[in-house]
């Protein structure tokens, strides 16, 4: 597997995990907050979308300069992020990426997105929607 294929697969895994940890979320989950010092799920999703957009722009145009996305409701944020992850995967698959840039994208925005998916899982559980356990190693991601 090439570095580019591995990077694309990592994005596919993020997509899979995002859908898993947000499945069954309550109607008001997007506004849930454990303190005034933490982000809500909507704000986390919005930040993740910003990371995805910046990553696509870096791959296609060589810079991170993008306007911040407007904050949507939970379903809007999740749907926009799912679409963005799909676009990111395609951009990785069709655009030549220098090895150093690919490594930096993995260590920066892509793993940052993974961290935020974990935050969403924890917040969803605290909000009463326990995420079912699963072996991600055995998961089939088409």
Describe the structure in brief.
The protein is mainly alpha-helical and about 140 residues long. About 65% of the residues lie in helices and about 0% in strands. It has four helices and no strands.
CATH topology heading: Four Helix Bundle (Hemerythrin (Met), subunit A)
Gross CATH architecture: Up-down Bundle
How confident is the prediction overall: mean pLDDT?
Answer: 95
Fraction of residues in helices?
A: 55-70%
Question: Regions with pLDDT < 50 over 5+ consecutive residues?
Answer: none
Rounded to an integer in angstroms, the radius of gyration calculated over CA atoms is 15 Å
Largest sheet: none
Structural class: mainly alpha
Structural descriptors:
about 140 residues, mainly alpha, Four Helix Bundle (Hemerythrin (Met), subunit A), about 0% strand
Overview of this protein structure:
- By secondary structure, this protein is mostly helical.
- It has a single domain, classed as Up-down Bundle (Four Helix Bundle (Hemerythrin (Met), subunit A)), CATH 1.20.120.
- The protein is 63% helix and 0% strand.
- The chain has four helices and no strands.
- Helix 1 runs parallel beside helix 4 and helix 2 packs antiparallel against helix 4 (99-126).
- The longest helix is centred in the C-terminal third of the chain and has 28 residues, at 99-126.
- The mean pLDDT is 95.
């Amino acid at each position: 597997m090439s570095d580019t294929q591995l990077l694309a697969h990592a994005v596919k895994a993020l997509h899979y995990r995002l859908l898993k940890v947000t499945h069954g979320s309550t109607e008001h989950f997007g506004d849930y907050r454990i303190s005034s010092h933490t982000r809500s799920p909507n704000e986390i999703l919005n930040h993740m979308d910003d990371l995805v957009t910046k990553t696509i722009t870096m791959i296609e145009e060589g810079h991170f300069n993008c306007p911040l996305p407007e904050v949507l409701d939970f379903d809007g944020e999740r749907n926009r992020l799912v679409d963005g992850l799909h676009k990111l995967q395609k951009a990785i698959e069709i655009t030549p990426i220098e090895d150093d840039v690919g490594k930096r994208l993995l260590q920066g925005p892509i793993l940052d997105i993974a961290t935020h998916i974990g935050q969403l899982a924890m917040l969803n559980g605290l909000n009463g929607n326990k995420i079912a356990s699963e072996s991600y190693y055995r998961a089939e991601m088409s």
